[in-house]
Amino acid sequence: MTLIRSLSNQDEFIGFYLLKELEVKQTNGTPPKDYFDIVLSDSSGQLSAKYWDVSATDKETFFPMGLVKIQGTVHTYREKLQVKIMKIRKATAEDGVSLTEFIRAAPIRPVDLVYTIHQAMESITDAEIKKLVAFCVAKVEEKLMHYPAAKTHHHAYYAGLAYHMVRMLEIGDFICKQRPFLNADLLKAGIILHDIAKPEEMVAQMGIVSDYSVQGKLLGHIAMASSWITEAAIQCGIDLQSERVLALQHLVLSHHNLGEWGSPVQPQTAEAVALHHIDALDAKLQMVEDALDVLPDSESWTPMIRGLENKPVYRAKW
Amino acid sequence: MTLIRSLSNQDEFIGFYLLKELEVKQTNGTPPKDYFDIVLSDSSGQLSAKYWDVSATDKETFFPMGLVKIQGTVHTYREKLQVKIMKIRKATAEDGVSLTEFIRAAPIRPVDLVYTIHQAMESITDAEIKKLVAFCVAKVEEKLMHYPAAKTHHHAYYAGLAYHMVRMLEIGDFICKQRPFLNADLLKAGIILHDIAKPEEMVAQMGIVSDYSVQGKLLGHIAMASSWITEAAIQCGIDLQSERVLALQHLVLSHHNLGEWGSPVQPQTAEAVALHHIDALDAKLQMVEDALDVLPDSESWTPMIRGLENKPVYRAKW
Amino acid sequence: MTLIRSLSNQDEFIGFYLLKELEVKQTNGTPPKDYFDIVLSDSSGQLSAKYWDVSATDKETFFPMGLVKIQGTVHTYREKLQVKIMKIRKATAEDGVSLTEFIRAAPIRPVDLVYTIHQAMESITDAEIKKLVAFCVAKVEEKLMHYPAAKTHHHAYYAGLAYHMVRMLEIGDFICKQRPFLNADLLKAGIILHDIAKPEEMVAQMGIVSDYSVQGKLLGHIAMASSWITEAAIQCGIDLQSERVLALQHLVLSHHNLGEWGSPVQPQTAEAVALHHIDALDAKLQMVEDALDVLPDSESWTPMIRGLENKPVYRAKW
Amino acid sequence: MTLIRSLSNQDEFIGFYLLKELEVKQTNGTPPKDYFDIVLSDSSGQLSAKYWDVSATDKETFFPMGLVKIQGTVHTYREKLQVKIMKIRKATAEDGVSLTEFIRAAPIRPVDLVYTIHQAMESITDAEIKKLVAFCVAKVEEKLMHYPAAKTHHHAYYAGLAYHMVRMLEIGDFICKQRPFLNADLLKAGIILHDIAKPEEMVAQMGIVSDYSVQGKLLGHIAMASSWITEAAIQCGIDLQSERVLALQHLVLSHHNLGEWGSPVQPQTAEAVALHHIDALDAKLQMVEDALDVLPDSESWTPMIRGLENKPVYRAKW
Amino acid sequence: MTLIRSLSNQDEFIGFYLLKELEVKQTNGTPPKDYFDIVLSDSSGQLSAKYWDVSATDKETFFPMGLVKIQGTVHTYREKLQVKIMKIRKATAEDGVSLTEFIRAAPIRPVDLVYTIHQAMESITDAEIKKLVAFCVAKVEEKLMHYPAAKTHHHAYYAGLAYHMVRMLEIGDFICKQRPFLNADLLKAGIILHDIAKPEEMVAQMGIVSDYSVQGKLLGHIAMASSWITEAAIQCGIDLQSERVLALQHLVLSHHNLGEWGSPVQPQTAEAVALHHIDALDAKLQMVEDALDVLPDSESWTPMIRGLENKPVYRAKW
Amino acid sequence: MTLIRSLSNQDEFIGFYLLKELEVKQTNGTPPKDYFDIVLSDSSGQLSAKYWDVSATDKETFFPMGLVKIQGTVHTYREKLQVKIMKIRKATAEDGVSLTEFIRAAPIRPVDLVYTIHQAMESITDAEIKKLVAFCVAKVEEKLMHYPAAKTHHHAYYAGLAYHMVRMLEIGDFICKQRPFLNADLLKAGIILHDIAKPEEMVAQMGIVSDYSVQGKLLGHIAMASSWITEAAIQCGIDLQSERVLALQHLVLSHHNLGEWGSPVQPQTAEAVALHHIDALDAKLQMVEDALDVLPDSESWTPMIRGLENKPVYRAKW
Q: Where does the HD/PDEase domain lie (chains A, B, C, D, E, F) (predicted)?
């Protein structure tokens, strides 16, 4: 079965794919005819596709996020590859394919990621900080198993958010050993909490963000997480004026570093400075790694990456 | 008694003033002598002053924020007026002067301002919004009687914050009549809440801000007020996810309009757009009015005003 | 008759509409066939449309800005609604429809708006200021009856400019009462003059701007209005160096506040500061009100609004 | 006689200088004593100076912009050279010194500069353009003989404005020969008019700008010159809507290139593009030449130059 | 034969053109048919074109950058002109047309441009500077005969780079005569070297840039030219620390003036300041001249020009 | 002996200090008297000081960067602490103090830092990369033992540059293990080379930068290091066009990330992205650690730190 990233112009192919998007449209002919405007995807990437001869049955058979078997050809349209679908049918139990094979996912099992996050949380020595973190994590416990970290920016796939947290926790551990003046409890808490409200900020399914929630648009995940800490303190009976509550809220509020990037205050504690830069280091490197992962072997340059000053990345030939 | 704004070069004068700042310093002579480096103020402005012949008794007699009677002369030092103090004594009960005469204050009595704010709050028809607003106002009830709205930017004087609120409420009333599609409850609530955390963000005495609090620096009044609304909802038993809580938090979070001005989200409801522009209109006009108020009659240009693109304001002669 | 804003995918409809734009194009077929590429509009919005079977007669019958009766169906093309026209004929006298019903217009009659502007002008107490304002208004007297205030930004409809002026005059009156130190004559004059050259900056018909004039592009309405004041002073025999001429030109030149927004100088009089912020308050709130006005009842979010930091506006459900 | 730029720490000297600034101040001693706070200047630069033993006669003898003979010593105060004046007397007729020797001036005689400008004006072939230019030049005819082009930025000396014009006219001639598609009449007119209102924007004496005029602050030289062209057209009976008036106003309005540099419109004719870049080329090179001119022979680096991105300029040693 | 810039909607025409781009695509029909998606060009401009009836032979006959004879018609597609090709054949020897007639080129013969550059190089009096320049020129000697100066920005045609250099050398000569304090050797060297690495930064054929090289993307022409000077010094036995090497590298590194425009250092020598502004003057005026050159006689406004603040240029009618 | 950071107002003290700066100045008295304007420093910080009674011998005895024994008192001058020196003598051999005790230095011995850098260099597996790195390191071998990484920004002390490299190498090792797709050879090389030219960009003694070199100002350390790689390739016989040379030059050129921060190109390889963010993480955390290190125990806030968006850092009390 051909992976989407290996398809090239003029290819003919048969295989299983995910109908990531599907819309019924009409041609300009007289009389107009229905056709499907489709986005196919698998774990290696995605491609737009057209299915021109749509029957009434087809319109009741195929829906977005369904698995299908397709026979098609690849051609170039407006300088991009496009699939012309010849045959299409729904995947059945006998085909032995499952949805999760067709979506992009973190390279570590979600259950392991969430376990690691819990372990980090348990290793926090300060009882109050641990309680505050646990309260917030509990709010999104289930979504941590599959939510992406962003719509397109970075870690935009199944369990991408948990994966981002785990990687940052590893870097955080290392930096705390290298610079013992840092408070490891606070840095761990900051890493776990900084994006904790993202699952409520975005609407996602199978690791794919379809939209932002009303709360996400009107408050943003930064202010949401800050309010969750207020809520946590009240529910856990911790003084709202305590230095711990203050330190955690500052970590969350300042982690985007600048006002124009969404932080109402700038990092002003050692751990807040560390948190921002560990976040940047992990997110940027993941963007690079993800872009190179789906780069066809024959290519040297990825597409432009918005988070990297809109520059492409070069893969050396040696 | 000569007001500070009427003093000019070479003047000799006697009068009562406030020792707004006072520090003991030493001259470079051998042996070095103690002197007082002073900032005098009254309701019309302030001026730096020196008192060169400081006795041991003087050092135990005079302290900042005390009222004194002074005989002095005015001269020019580095292009600014400065007072040389000839005689100084503490004001006594017999002098019949009181501290509040010597500080700059809103032109309406604090008790009337706070009464007006309470009336506006009472006029909110939605019971939940009214409760949320009342909870937050109660937190700073007493400080509303005297807190300024900012350190230097605008309304930087006794009861300046309450005065700013009251003026905005008047404009808000007018705009809601002009444009009935606006929700008057929300706009009133937004006006009362938008700067409600400023008394906890800043440390002030007699309308003069000496510093920002730790909370003020690490969280900022915007995030603080947003958290107060969370706290209010929990204490009043209002659903944290309700549209009302969301709308109020959005008003507070977005009222600085842009990320670089401290708002993590931009105004995205009609009332949030109105709130930001009413705030700007009132604050900017107050800066102008305050600067013209203390401008000597002989002058046409105020000093540069930071909040007005760092431009001075011209007063026409006709 | 179905309003354009109520049309949705798959609808079939019959009704009268305005041919806001119409172009004859050719299909790619062999031989190529002519078709009409059309923008339909009514008072509720606009929609693109295609008419595929164009006869020689059709090409001599239908022209832009004409009223037509249409039978059509709605479908989705590239994620936007598009009309396929089945039948089309010109509206006739018997149909009893008139052009002005089909364009978006200010909610107050133009004649009333212009009357209000004249009243405000008459209420200016300073004789010279009144003359200068009257001279400039006379230049665009007729166009004030129908010109929009902008191409797309705000008040972009029939008599939008006069409507913007009238609303600003109302706010100006209120603010002058609230802050008596403001010169009401100057503020009125500034409100009337600030956009007075827009009808010469833009080319508009029926409230729809099709282009900017050569003068508009090379000078801009700000410099144009400033020159009109010079012209007015010369024609009215008022000294070009007088403080009144200076004050009015400053109001006009500074009303966009910043150089990057087109003002060569920044506001430096009390009235200029007031003018800019009243202009901003009215324009921004009108953008919001206009966007909500055409928002389908089923929707909660308007499209992104360029003048509001490119953000959409949310309409609460309660 | 020692030039100011050759004075160094510990020097003792006697010579004639200009009292560019003089203020009477008082020491902190008891009783306080009067002293003069002075800025001395000659054609090579300027230096601050103190004269400590001021008599009553002295205060009636010495005033700013007077020529004096001085005996003094040079020392370092806060890392800058400063003169301690030992003896001072007014220059007399017998001394044979004249004010113009002591100020910085363009390297060409004002009368020759103005003659060249008139010649350029006469060489304009289009009668209307010539009339418009002549009208504006006539307004500042006399001031062109001595006005600087700016307060500090560039050509900040006697006749600096006329010198800047003449140099630009030379470059303009060359570029018009190199690129015949440019309209030489318009480019000449643009060069003569672009800064023509500067003598009314600034208040200057002997090539030294002491302040901006009220008109200069509230309108700026760009809008002022644009209005002068309006005035010129009316007085010369030229249609205000003519392409020539439009072209000249566009040249003036756009010559700062960007809104943030004060131009309400950007260059949109060939001549306007040429004008801006010829202006920049001449102004920037003059800043460099002027800075190197007053650089002591022993130094390699000039002070930072604001108009050159705040960078100093290096003079190579070979 | 009709030049491309004279073609208008509905024209039928026959003539020779260059196949600047050609791609084989497929229609959406069943079965899909091949067609050519083409960009035609000649010395006057370019136009997109479609050839719908492509045979197997055609696909082996026509390739990009080939000359063809075409019979076609012009129509409008999405508001742009497009050609429908009726007949197409390859140009033959008998047709007597040559490739260079069909591309846009500098108005002076390449051989003359390169000769002028060599003369300028020979006129450098300092032996070391001359050697350094000669070494770098030798690296791109052949490409100077035909390389453009940029992809689209300015001088984007055959021998555009050499033409840009020659024009700048003319301006440089003039400015050095006007301001003798400038070092003419350095300015000449700077003009020749500033863009000398562009032929290695870009991949171009017939004056048309198809892409940037890997070196061009990862290092940029500025750092490349700086390294060439290092290489030149080593190969010519000139001390790498010498003031001459330093001066030339500074000229190259600083010529874009600002960091955000690609210069790691800002101009800090007189010649570097001159170089930047001569470069800007020549490049901007060439953009204007090129845009006006291809503007149809009936039009007054060019398209928007990116290098001119994204503004169009107006051509007056008189 | 009292450390400078422990001195407070009114203290009297005796101890050994470094004369970091010393200048002879004159008082305004008649006759003027010489005095020393001094900056004292030790490993804990620095303080300005005055010595009023300077004898002729003193002027030949005391020079900058000498060790002295001082008896003095501390007072406040213009809100800053200042020392009045009562007695001063040079330190002698018997005093048993050495210069290095009085300067701020990296917490690891220089010899160990340089050894670690050499080890990292040796561990590079690619022979060509190793040679290129070794050539560049050899150029500054000796200065690596003591040069700071910057004038004031970060690691501004003895051996600060080597310390910065070693810390970054540690982080680089960790990240390469965490993300094996990174080329460890390139990342090591990039870390060693990115600031390698700083010792030639700045003039420093005892870890204190007094100025930038002419090369440093005209080329900057980024372009200098890039040229060194060119030189290294030529001297080592490595093809200048090779991918390795290209990769190293790209790492150096892009490591400041943005044009406005001095990088002529942006990171476009995985290792370049990693290098920039590791550099930022280490530099910012070091700024924080250094600022907290010298913060008096009684204080909670450091001064504003320019590299941290000009914000101070807060030290929690728990």
A: 157-293
